[in-house]
């Protein structure tokens, strides 16, 4: 079966470019590039590896992330720091970046997760630094992105190790995919 490139990613890229064609600083421009590069890399890596299951997981996470983030933007109706619109909460750039980073980490491991989370953190920082969002907007966007991929994404291959804690104690859950 041939992997298909996810339509939500194409829509996301068009949305981000349409919103930020005229960035005012290098920080904002590089943050915009990171917000587009992360989902392109995440979906592209799955596509190049013919990982149809991964593409489906990425698409579900991306769609739920985009829908919830957009819904909250209009439900909360929070004014941006510059005062130019009422779509500050939560940060779409941050939710997209952290959704992609979490997908990469959870699907392919920390080898991909560390650089992805580093870039996602820069994207979030750039939104505050360029006066597009408040810190709480970025944190909320990051949380939405992380949770959407954490819910839909499964490990690609090999051993999956996850710590857990509950009322009975703490431990490590080990799972092997064959």
UniProtKB/TrEMBL annotation:
Keywords: Signal
CDD domains, A to Z: PAP2_like_5
EC number: 3.6.1.27
Superkingdom per UniProt: Bacteria
A Pfam family it matches: PAP2
Keyword presence, Signal: yes
Molecular function terms, GO-annotated: undecaprenyl-diphosphatase activity
Stated name of the protein: undecaprenyl-diphosphate phosphatase
